[in-house]
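stuck on this fold:
=====
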Amino acid sequence: MKLYLIAPAFELYGKDVAAERTRAAIALITQLVCDALRDGDDTQLTSEWRRPDGTMADVLDTDSRLAIVPLRDAAALHAHVEAAIDPNGVLPSCHIRGADVRSAVNCRAVSFGYDGQAFLCLRFEDPAPVSTDPDLAVVEERSDWLATTDYLDGLVPG
């Protein structure tokens, strides 16, 4: 496995969320992650906290349970990843629900930081993501973090 840090090239948190550069950075990181995850695979899963009636909850609700949610539709995956990357919370926040995404059939997975970062785990044979605009987002191979951090702990089961 290889781990890639995909991060904004500038601090996104607290920035004018309507600013063109902020929105463009979020869009680029989202696209890089979605393209890598969906490369020949549409079996992505995430987890969400749900009440017994199936409505959305958060981890603090005493009757909530963790549910595995498929993201097989490209638009659903894109919306989920975009919300997880946006540190300003303009989009519905996934952080409290657990935004991590994993493929059900291969080892591709992504976890998210709180400041717009994506920690993308890919197979050795997968192509490395490449930022089309380093002024918006940078990609750094950080496979050494697989053994020395807990960034990918708690990913949803496949």
